[in-house]
# Entry
Amino acid sequence: MAVRRTGAAVTGVNAPARIFRTEDELARLPASERIRYRLVTADRRHHANDNIADQIHAGELEELKAEVAEKVHEVLRALVIDTDSDHNTKETAQRVAKMYIEEVFRGRYVPMPAVTEFPNAERLNELMIVGPITVRSACSHHLCPIIGRVWIGLLPNEHSNLIGLSKYARICDWIMSRPQIQEEAVTMLANELQERVKPDGLGIVMEADHFCMHWRGVKDNESAMVNSVMRGAFLKDPNLRREFLSLLPNRKNS
Ligand SMILES: [Zn+2]
# Structure
C-alpha cells in the first residue's frame, strides 16, 4: 500500500489528509472522517472487505448510520425520486443505512465473534467436514447480493485447536457480511481458520450465486461460481482432496 508520509494536507475529494488533528478537531468531523483519519494514521488498509472494528469508538456506529442515511437520501434525490410525497420511499434511506451497518456489511464494523478453542484431547486425526454453511454476502463491484454455500474440510493433528461446530458458521458469516470478492472471501476464511485451528490440512469450497449476473449485465440464470482453497495435506494428498470433494453433499456442479 502506498503510504503518504508528508505532513502537508492532501488535496482532492477522497484523499485522506495526513495532517495532525487534535481530539477537538476530530470531534467536529463526521464519524466516517474521524474513523478514516485513525485508519490512515495507523497505516491500516480499509478496503470493502476489511474489518475496521478496532478503530471505531463507542457510539460511532450510530453516527455512521445517520451519516449513511443522509447520503442515501441524496442518492434517492439524484435519482429524482420524490421521497417527500412517496410513502414507499420516505424511510428508505434510514432502512438502507440500518441494513448496511447492522446487517449485510456488519462484518466490517464488529469484532470477530468470540470463539472458544479446545485442545484436541481425543487426538482426532480424521477428515472432518463442516457444511454446507449458508453464505450471504454482496459483491464489492455492484453491492448486489451473493448467496451461496461453503464447505470446510479439516484434517486436525494432536496440536490442533478444535472449535465448536456452530463457530465455523459464525466466523464465516463475519467474513462474508462485507462487500466481498468470492476469491478473496474464501482466502480470508482460510487464513482465519488456519490461524485458529492449526490443522494439518484445510480445504474450503464455496459455491455462490452472484445476483449482479441475474439482475443486470448478462442476466444469466445459470451463473453459480465455485472456487476453492486447499492447504497443507489437502494440497499434497490427491486422495484426501478427492475424498473431501466427493463427500460434499448436494453440490450443484459436482
Ligand atoms: Zn457484481
Summary: The mean pLDDT is 90. Residues 23-109 form a domain with the GTP Cyclohydrolase I; Chain A, domain 1 fold (CATH 1.10.286.10). The longest strand covers residues 128-139. Residues 79 and 187 are 37 Å apart (CA to CA).
